[in-house]
């Protein structure tokens, strides 16, 4: 971040970075707690995740408003303008991550009374490990303005896609073994889709980091190893 003659300008931009870091911490905690709640069928923890979402929404609105005010007051150019645009983009992606973690917590509340095949959650735990690491690396890339780390996150998104396909096949097997598993496993399918979408948002953050530092856009086509979407709708907007 460049130094300006008007020090309050520097403080405005630094404040945006601090708020992004705060949002990232809240989203990481929500994701970890949502998966803990799903793994242990912890109702109280699931409710705690759901109740955390308004805090993330408020932080996003604050970042957007402050970034817009900075643009209006300072009329930034080049990297300073990209700092403001990046803050708006990244805060939006982090807010979506929080929404998806909240959706996993809500699914947990729906299946807690019919925890039929706990081993079906094993694949989701593996997806969570990758998604959580991708989220951490993308946020670190933003904090450090590290384009190499950002590009690595972008490249690794295909690993999460491939694992989602594997989880789908496992859950389908559980459903075919016993039709009574269908409702339980269907909720888990939506949880796996939520984790896959979190991976997409981490790659969005990485693309924004590269844009912020270099002014250049990443390729429009991301590395993908899979085709089917299984017809599961994105729950981020719910």
TrEMBL record:
Main localization of the protein described in the UniProt heading: cytoplasm
Domain PhoU, first and last residues per copy: 20-108, 124-209
GO cellular component, one term: cytoplasm
Annotated TM spans: none
Pfam family, one: PhoU
Cell compartments where the protein resides: Cytoplasm
UniProt-listed GO biological process terms: intracellular phosphate ion homeostasis; negative regulation of phosphate metabolic process; phosphate ion transport
UniProt xrefs under Gene3D superfamilies: Phosphate transport system protein phou homolog 2, domain 2 (1.20.58.220)
Domain of life: Bacteria
Assigned keywords, A-Z: Cytoplasm, Phosphate transport, Transport
Subunit structure: Homodimer.
PANTHER family: PHOSPHATE-SPECIFIC TRANSPORT SYSTEM ACCESSORY PROTEIN PHOU
Family that this chain belongs to: Belongs to the PhoU family.
Protein's job: Plays a role in the regulation of phosphate uptake.
Protein's UniProt name: Phosphate-specific transport system accessory protein PhoU
Species the sequence originates in: Methylocystis rosea
